Amino acid sequence: MDALIGLAGLAGIIYSIIAMISAKRRHMPIKKPVIILFLGLVLFISGLSMTPPKDNNGIGTGDSTISPSPSAISTSAPEDTPTITPSPDIATITPTPTPTPTSKTLKELKVSFIDVGQADSILIQAPTGESMLIDAGNNDDSNLVVSYLKKQGIEKLDVVIGTHPHEDHIGGLDAVINAFDIGQIYMPKVSHTTITYEDVLTAIKNKGLKAKAPSPGTTFYLGDAKCNVLAPNSSSYEDLNNYSIVIKLEYGNTSFLFAGDAEDVSEKEMLNKKYNLDADVLKVGHHGSSSSTTAEFLSSVSPKYAVIMVGKDNNYGHPHKEVMDRLKSKKIPVYRTDESGTIVCTTDGKTITFNVSAGSYTSGEKTEQSTPTPKSSSGASGDRIVYYMKNGKSYHYSKNCSTLSRSKNILEGKLSDVIKMGKDDPCNVCVR
Ligand SMILES: [Zn+2]
Ligand SMILES: [Zn+2]
Question: Residues 125, 165: contact at Cβ < 8 Å?
Fold first, then answer.
């Protein structure tokens, strides 16, 4: 239709030019052809402006593969494992092909590695406005995560991923689900008998949502960013960490690999599946533990930068020396939340910039004398003094626990009393 208007305009222009020439030759008035020329021009221009631009690469990333073309969405259907089919709901998280952004609207993709101490919480904001949250820190980080998101102007999270049911990943998830509009929730198919996990399930249910387990090998889009699901590749593991949903996000020519707490077992599976693991930024698996980031996996990812989300003076000695040595020998700059706080990384699809400078290769292992946390020998006597936060659900054995360190108001009380108050989630950092 628009093309027809344009064509009619063009015909008018050509006709009027011919008429003008012949009128001039015959010394006749050229007023009529001039009016036709004007009308023709108007029709032609309006026809042009109504024709939608065909060029999907207007985003300027120079990489046609990332364009969220409708065809790319339909191919994101399950490729192999039909067991846990990534529901047709995937389409709901893929915003209907937005009008091609002009160069004016081109902003950057922003990845915030939110400092939640010995825990993970990563916010990804696409330039087209979509956002994704991978994990939400500990229970005690709920307010911190929610307020960080609000400060970024988030009202809706298009995708929320709870990588695996450990508290340091899903602790704040219920608060996030309650505080924002949520598109799609992804969680691995594994349950966990903790109150924290139950709270998340309740929050999901109360909001009328349903968590889905994404199949490895499938993709979904966050605006123009392509998200590849790389793990988990098996249906059962000994260690909960290996259930971690691993995502590789591609934006333009840049890429990020978010490894959750995936350990060597899962890394090996990803390698065996021959996935393209190559990424510019690696969110190092399991807080820099030596159970993750094997030499083989690191070579395959070959990151330009590594990010470690880890708490200062954590009881696990994270990040471990083996991992730091491996990163150092490959001269990969390491950004760490224990040294830099929240790390914000931005990319225009070509270059990647960090808001802070790279950190040290120092491991978290304490020299000599490792202080083993006293086991809860208390048993029946719940009279041990524990520490907690007003709004938290966890209790802590150590007042200096890294997950408490950000709180100004650390309260204390007898374990039995604190549990009665509903703060019955043992901190996974200081209570072991
Ligand atoms: Zn963790
Ligand atoms: Zn974990």
Answer: no
CATH number of 70-354: 3.60.15.10
Q: Closest ligand to 119 CA?
A: 1
Q: How far apart are CA 131 and CA 244, in angstroms?
A: 20
**Rounded distance from Cα 68 to ligand 2 centre (Å):** 33
Tell me the average confidence (pLDDT) per consecutive run of 10 residues in the chain, 432 residues long: 54 59 60 59 53 35 32 32 34 37 61 98 97 98 98 98 98 98 97 95 97 97 97 97 98 98 98 98 98 98 98 97 98 98 97 98 76 44 72 77 69 77 76 66
Token pair 């893929």: residue: 94
Rounded to whole angstroms, the Cα distance separating 267 from 155 reads 34
- Ligand 2 centroid–CA 290 distance in Å is 13
User: From start to end of 240-341, where are the E strands?
Assistant: 246-251, 254-258, 281-283, 305-308, 334-336
State the distance from the centre of ligand 1 to the C-alpha of 120, rounded, in angstroms.
6
Helix axes 31-50, 2-25, angle to 10 degrees: 160
CB 424 within 8 A of CB 195: yes
**What is the CA(309)–ligand 2 centre distance, in A?**
12
Quote the ligand 1 centre to 320 CA distance (angstroms): 14
| Ligand 1 (single-atom ion) residues, CB below 5 Å | 168, 261
Residue type, 179: A
The token pair at 269 is 């599976």
Helix (H, G, I), strand (E, B) or coil at 172: coil
**Which residues face 258 on adjacent strands?**
247, 283
Ligand nearest to the CA of 169: 1
Distance 127 CA to ligand 2 centre (A): 30
- Given a contact cutoff of 8 angstroms between Cβ atoms, the answer to whether 319 and 363 are in contact is yes
Contact 176, 145 (CB under 8 A): yes
Q: Which amino acid is at 257?
A: L
Q: How far is residue 362's CA from residue 360's CA, in Å, rounded to a whole number?
A: 5
pLDDT at residue number 25: 59
Q: How far is the CA of 152 from the centre of ligand 1 (A)?
A: 24
The position carrying tokens 């529901």 is: 87
Please say whether the beta carbons of 200 and 63 come within 8 A.
no
Distance CA 163, CA 66 (A): 24
Question: What's the pLDDT at 394?
Answer: 79
* CA gap 261, 421 in Å, rounded: 31
Using alpha carbons, list the distances in angstroms from residue 56 to 102, 105, 230, 255, 339: 10, 14, 27, 20, 41
Task: Show the tokens assigned to 183.
Answer: 């598109």
101: CA distance to ligand 2 center in Å? 39
